[in-house]
Write a structure and sequence with these properties.
With 314 residues, the chain is mainly α. It has a domain of 211 residues. It contains twelve helices and two strands. Strands 1-2 form a two-stranded antiparallel ribbon. The chain is globular and about 60 Å long. 40% of the residues are buried.
C-alpha cells in the first residue's frame, strides 16, 4: 500500500508539472492547446532514445527531451500563429495524433506499438522498489517546486504581464508596440517544454512507454486539472492536478461496492464521477478553486498608495 500511495503521488506531481505548462500557454497567454500529450510524447521518446541508445545520463536525456518539446512547440506555434480558439484547438489535437502515429510506425526509432522498455531510472538497480519510489517522489517534488517558483516569476514579470495582455486583447498589445506573435511563440515554447519535461520524468519512472499511453484523454485530464484549480493561477494548477488524481484513484476503491457493475461500466463510472466533480466545482466556483489574482501585490499596493495620496488643487 505504501508503494501505491507513493506512486500515485509521483503521478500527481507529473500531472501538476503538465498543468503548470498548460497554464503558461492557456492561463497566461490564452492559447488553446489540445496537443499537450504530443509534447509529452516528444519529451518522453527523446529522453528514452538518447539514454537507451546513446547512453546519455538520465538528467541530460530529460533536458534534451525538454528542449526538443520546446522546439517542436515553437515550430507548431509559428505554423498556427494566425489561428485562434477552436481552429487552434483542432490543429493542436491533430498534432498530438500525428506524433502518436509517427511513434507507432517508425519502428526503427521508437520500436512501434511495442514501445520502449527498460528505460533507465535513477538508482533503480541499486535500491529496493520502495526506496526507488521514495527517491523519485523527492525528485518530482523538487522539480515541481522549482518550476512553480519559475512560473510564479514569469506570471508577475513584465513578460508575464504582456502575456496576460495578449490573452485579453492582442490588438491593444500590438498598438502598444509589442509583437504579440513573438510572445505567443515564446509562451507556446515554454509551456511545451515544461510538458515535455513531465513526459521525460514519466518515462524514466515507469521504465516503459508506448504510443498507446499518449492518448487525447491525458490532455483532457490536464485541462480539467487547470479548470478545477483555477485558470491563470499556478497554485490552482497544482491543487487541481492533485484533486483530479485523487478522484481518479479514489473512485477505484468505490466502484467495487456498487452492485451489478461490470468492469467496463466501472471504468465509465469513474469518468462520470470526475465529470460530476468538475460540474459541481464550476457551478459554485466558475473561476476554479483558486481564482487568478487580478493584481500583483506590488501593483496593488501602488494603486492603494495612489488612491490614498491627496490630490493638489489646480
Amino acid at each position: 500500500m505504501e508503494i501505491y500511495i507513493i506512486s500515485i503521488s509521483v503521478v500527481a506531481g507529473i500531472y501538476a508539472i503538465m498543468a503548470l505548462g498548460l497554464n503558461v500557454m492557456w492561463g497566461m497567454a490564452g492559447l488553446v492547446n489540445l496537443g499537450l500529450v504530443g509534447s509529452a510524447a516528444v519529451g518522453a521518446y527523446t529522453s528514452a532514445i538518447l539514454t537507451g541508445k546513446l547512453g546519455l545520463p538520465i538528467g541530460a536525456g530529460i533536458l534534451c527531451g525538454t528542449i526538443a518539446a520546446a522546439a517542436v512547440g515553437a515550430g507548431l506555434s509559428l505554423v498556427t500563429r494566425r489561428l485562434k480558439d477552436n481552429y487552434l484547438a483542432i490543429v493542436t489535437l491533430g498534432f498530438a495524433e500525428t506524433i502518436r502515429i509517427i511513434a507507432s510506425n517508425e519502428i526503427w526509432l521508437t520500436n512501434g506499438t511495442d514501445g520502449i522498455s527498460g528505460i533507465a531510472g535513477p538508482f533503480r538497480t541499486d535500491v529496493s522498489l520502495l526506496q526507488f519510489n521514495v527517491i523519485y517522489l523527492g525528485i518530482v517534488v523538487l522539480v515541481l517546486a522549482a518550476l512553480y517558483v519559475c512560473c510564479q516569476r514569469i506570471l508577475y514579470s513584465p513578460f508575464g504581464r504582456v502575456l496576460r495582455a495578449v490573452r485579453d486583447d492582442d490588438v491593444v498589445v500590438s498598438v502598444a508596440g509589442k509583437n504579440s506573435q513573438v510572445f505567443k511563440v515564446q509562451a507556446f515554447a515554454i509551456g511545451s517544454g515544461i510538458v515535455g519535461l513531465a513526459g521525460g520524468l514519466y518515462a524514466h519512472y515507469t521504465s516503459f512507454i508506448s504510443p498507446d499511453l499518449f492518448v487525447p484523454l491525458l490532455t483532457l485530464y490536464v485541462k480539467l486539472s487547470l479548470l478545477v484549480g483555477g485558470v491563470g493561477n499556478n497554485r490552482g494548477a497544482v491543487v487541481g492536478a492533485t484533486l483530479i488524481i485523487l478522484i481518479l484513484e479514489g473512485t477505484r476503491f468505490v466502484i467495487p461496492f456498487i452492485p451489478y457493475i461490470t468492469p467496463p461500466q466501472g471504468a465509465a463510472m469513474r469518468e462520470l464521477f470526475l465529470s460530476a466533480t468538475l460540474l459541481i466545482v464550476l457551478r459554485f466556483r466558475v473561476t476554479g478553486l483558486i481564482p487568478e489574482a487580478q493584481d500583483h501585490p506590488v501593483v496593488a499596493r501602488d494603486k492603494t498608495a495612489d488612491r490614498a495620496r491627496p490630490t493638489t488643487a489646480s
